Inverse folding.
């Protein structure tokens, strides 16, 4: 006899019993870690956390860091312990993992479409303070229906396009009209604006980023003022990323900062400029891929065990850290090709650290963080929201 079908809207989260053991144990030497492994240098990581907290201290801006970077409730709790008000999530499943991990205030900074996803979102709002973004009147109606069925009043932010040309309504009248529609629904409440300029974060020069964000600030200011004239106040005006957060913080318009990559950094952020054309050094690299040389078939070539499945190539190949004679020059699924300078000796079994070109998708390839201080593994954290794409 078939069992009656049941549905659950609570993911396994941090208690997920991994079918494969972690690559390290607390107390072991870092040279004993199985590879490829995702490393966090805790001294640098904790310094990055403090730098962000200090950067916005004394301002009217709150930190709501983005969990799409780390996908780990343990890290989210550390960010909140330093003053963060909650987390941003990009998908409903990611928000479910954060709430299951003890995070009580989340915004899904994305549009949510589809009856099943909306049901899960509304059910999650029974257990936490949950908000979501919207840019379409049809979606407003669906959100209202889902909230009514769950017996909740769901907070909804209007997303405006401030230059990224992704989701979002044009700033101004269209956004105000949608906000009014949200405010009229009995099971929704208008929560403010989502105004994130993602494509500005990695513009190479400071001048480029400044010009892009100046436009985003003015578009957001215009929309905020038009909403206020219509009697609609914005509890939240959120946006900003690691590359521009100081600009939004100083704007007098944004009140929440949604940076994520600052905790880890990556090759893409290492390539952008600070004011005056100097290197961007607000935060330091704390995330690395530890890999092992598993083949040395020629004097000028070695092969490591970190390929595409360990390091996302979407923004380029990873960089070798701390080895001037070795360059990572190619990838296949399970292999990384290392070019060796003439005379540079490397041994079979040697350990190399790689800097990922893009931290977010690289994190999503791994189940665990191996957190070390010095040469000792201090913690192993599950990447509980890995693969939460729905």
């Amino acid at each position: 006899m078939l069992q009656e079908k049941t549905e659950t809207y609570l993911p396994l989260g941090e208690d997920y019993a991994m079918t494969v053991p972690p690559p390290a144990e607390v107390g072991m030497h870092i040279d004993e870690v199985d590879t490829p492994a995702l490393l966090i240098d805790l001294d640098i990581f904790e310094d990055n956390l403090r730098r962000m907290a200090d950067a916005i201290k004394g301002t009217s801006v709150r930190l709501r860091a983005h969990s799409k970077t780390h996908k780990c409730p343990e890290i989210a709790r550390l960010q909140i312990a330093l003053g963060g008000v909650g987390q941003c999530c990009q998908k409903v499943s990611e928000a479910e993992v954060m709430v299951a991990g003890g995070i009580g205030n989340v915004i899904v900074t994305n549009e949510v479409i589809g009856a099943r996803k909306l049901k899960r979102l509304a059910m999650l709002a029974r257990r936490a303070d949950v908000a979501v973004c919207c840019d379409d009147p049809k979606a407003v109606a669906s959100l209202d229906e889902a909230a009514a069925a769950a017996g909740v009043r769901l907070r909804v932010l209007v997303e405006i396009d401030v230059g990224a040309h992704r989701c979002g309504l044009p700033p101004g009248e269209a956004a105000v009209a949608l906000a009014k529609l949200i405010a009229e629904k009995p099971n929704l409440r208008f929560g403010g604006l989502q105004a994130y300029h993602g494509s500005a974060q990695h513009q190479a020069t400071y001048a480029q980023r400044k010009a892009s964000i100046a436009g985003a600030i003015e578009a957001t200011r215009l929309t905020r003022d038009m909403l206020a004239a219509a009697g609609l106040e914005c509890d939240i005006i959120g946006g900003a990323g690691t590359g521009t957060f100081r600009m939004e913080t100083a704007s007098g318009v944004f009140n929440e900062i949604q940076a994520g990559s600052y905790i880890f950094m990556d090759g893409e952020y290492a390539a952008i400029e600070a004011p005056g054309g100097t290197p961007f050094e607000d935060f330091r690299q704390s995330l690395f891929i530890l890999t092992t040389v598993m083949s040395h078939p020629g004097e000028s070539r070695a092969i490591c065990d970190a390929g595409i499945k360990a390091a996302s190539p979407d923004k380029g190949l990873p960089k070798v850290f701390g080895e001037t004679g070795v360059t990572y020059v190619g990838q296949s699924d399970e292999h990384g090709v290392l070019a060796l300078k003439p005379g540079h000796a490397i041994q079979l079994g040697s350990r190399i650290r790689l800097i990922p070109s893009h931290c977010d998708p690289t994190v999503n390839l791994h189940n665990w963080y191996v957190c070390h201080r010095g040469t000792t593994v201090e913690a192993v954290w599950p990447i509980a929201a890995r693969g939460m794409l729905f």
Remarks:
- The first helix runs from residue 42 to 56.
- Confidence is low (pLDDT under 50) at residues 1-17.
